[in-house]
Design goal:
Layout lengths: L2 H11 L11 E5 L2 E4 L4 E4 L2 H4 L8 H11 L14 H12 L3 E5 L2 H15 L8 E5 L8 H5 L4 H4 L9 E4 L4 H7 L4 E7 L1 E2 L5 E2 L2 H14 L2 E5 L23 E4 L10 E5 L1 H4 L15 H16 L2 H22 L3 E7 L2 E6 L4 H9 L2 E2 L1 E3 L3 E4 L7 H21 L2 H4 L19
Parallel strand pairs: 3-15, 5-6, 5-7, 7-10, 10-11
Antiparallel strand pairs: 1-2, 2-3, 4-12, 8-9, 11-12, 13-14, 14-17, 16-17
Helix pairs in contact: 3-11, 4-11, 12-14
Bound molecules: pyridoxal-5'-phosphate.
Pyridoxal-5'-phosphate binds next to α5.
């Protein structure tokens, strides 16, 4: 099938939920993907944070093959060998004590929300939630109700009542929003889709205190920032976060759909058999692959690499901020990095494809980097060479230097002094 035929088929038969870039990916290997004609692209998007082990990792392929030949699915009516082991692993890494497996991020958020409701069920009226403006927790109704962005919520309102949104890192707003009717405070330790914005350690402490003061649970959504992406197993471990519930998904099963709710022991008694469950969640294939995911992280020293190469990437991005007026700021840690631009960035992503690099834009003007943990310095160099060229063209195309009051014809910054990120 040609690319054009494929596009036409989707146009004809799919619900129009996606606005895709003009690329069909046929396969991948490590940090590269290949299109239908075999052209190679450096992947700095990593399946939006899913492909932490890149593509076709030999150990993942081997385990997939082995387990597919044994049992892909086992109903949650029965035990299998891997769900308990994976739960144990997640508990050891997180410091929490109980796990529920779901099939995606949004579904894990639903599980967390239901657990929070169950915990306060005996207290009438204690069912409100405090969440953050600019957040993204998923697209099912519960998760969407916690998502503080009108563009996602608008068409589907009315959503779940009783959710208050406050600005990130605003202690005063937190204090006035949380009260005895609050059953949960939920936040992404680092907002991903929102443009890579971190909750400060201080704000995490304040959220912990507010939850304790009012008998609410603190839920940290680490679906995007967790499981190694920031250089530790959980981002909250670098920020003095002390959650009651943590939600993970994306990279955990190396591309297979799997999400998990991790909870403190004391919350487990709130839920009993039959109150929550799933057909597919925590099947043997996904759980066994997830166990291998963690083994690969350990055996290949990938968290250390995320820290080292992540810093290298961040320095490279900071240099772009110094050099280009259109690049305003960098944010992030490890392999969760952002370059805030002054202009919409979609055209950059399209031109990136022509240059053989997959880039991602979120919040219209933020280039977001979520590469595989296998990325090396030489890949960063290649990627940033392309980004540099694209920024130069973007500035020229928009006569940016002139707008910024710089002399025409020198679109790159020459004065380092006034260009530091704020
Ligand atoms: C922080 C966060 N929470 C929840 C979700 C929803 O996950 P999923 O798309 O697997 O449902 C996402 C997805 O991008 C996310 O980044």
């Amino acid at each position: 099938m040609t690319f054009d035929e494929l596009v036409e088929l989707e146009r004809r038969y799919l619900l129009p939920t996606y606005s895709r870039y003009p690329l069909a990916i046929a396969r991948g290997k490590g940090v590269y993907v290949y299109d239908l004609d075999g052209r190679r692209y450096l992947d700095l998007v990593g399946g939006l944070g899913v492909n932490a082990l890149g593509h076709a990792h030999p150990r993942i392929v081997r385990v997939l093959r082995q387990q597919a030949a044994r049992a892909v699915h086992v109903s949650n009516l029965y035990y299998h060998e891997y769900q308990g082991l994976l739960a144990q692993k997640l508990c050891e890494l997180s410091g929490l004590q109980r796990v529920f497996f779901a099939n995606s991020g949004t579904e894990a958020i639903e599980g967390a929300l239901k657990l929070a409701r169950a915990v306060s069920h005996h207290q009438p009226g204690k069912c409100d939630v405090v969440a953050l403006a600019g957040s993204f927790h998923g697209r099912t109704f519960g998760a969407l109700s916690l998502t503080g962005q009108q563009k996602y919520r608008g068409p589907f309102e009315p959503l779940l009542p009783g959710v208050t949104f406050i600005p990130i890192n605003d202690a005063e707003a937190l204090r006035s929003a949380v009260n005895d009717s609050t059953c949960a405070i939920i936040l992404e330790t680092i907002q991903g889709e929102g443009g890579i914005r971190e909750a400060t350690p201080q704000f995490l402490r304040q959220a912990r205190d507010a939850a304790d003061r009012h008998g609410a649970v603190l839920i940290l959504d680490e679906i995007q920032c967790g499981l190694g992406r920031t250089g530790s197993y959980f981002a909250y471990q670098q920020m003095d976060g002390r959650p009651d519930i943590v939600v993970v998904a994306k990279p955990i099963a190396a591309g297979l759909p799997l999400g998990a709710v991790l909870a403190r022991e004391e919350l487990a008694s709130a839920i009993s058999p039959g109150q929550h469950g799933t057909t597919f969640g925590g099947g043997p294939l996904a759980c066994r692959v997830a166990l291998e995911y963690f083994r690969v992280l350990e055996d290949e020293g990938l968290l250390e690499r995320v820290r080292r190469v992540g810093e290298y990437l961040q320095h490279g991005l900071q240099e772009l901020v110094v050099k280009f007026a259109v690049a305003e700021q960098t944010r992030g840690r490890g392999f969760m990095q952002a370059l805030q631009l002054a202009l919409p960035a979609r055209s950059l992503v399209e031109k990136g494809l022509e240059e053989g690099v997959l880039l991602n834009v979120t919040q219209e003007k933020v280039l977001r980097f979520l590469p595989a943990f296998l990325l090396e310095e030489k890949h960063v160099d290649r990627g940033l060479r392309v980004v540099r060229k694209l920024l130069r063209d973007l500035q020229k195309g928009n006569r940016f230097s002139q707008k910024m009051g710089e002399p025409e014809g020198s679109p790159e910054r020459s004065d380092r002094g006034d260009t530091q990120p704020t």
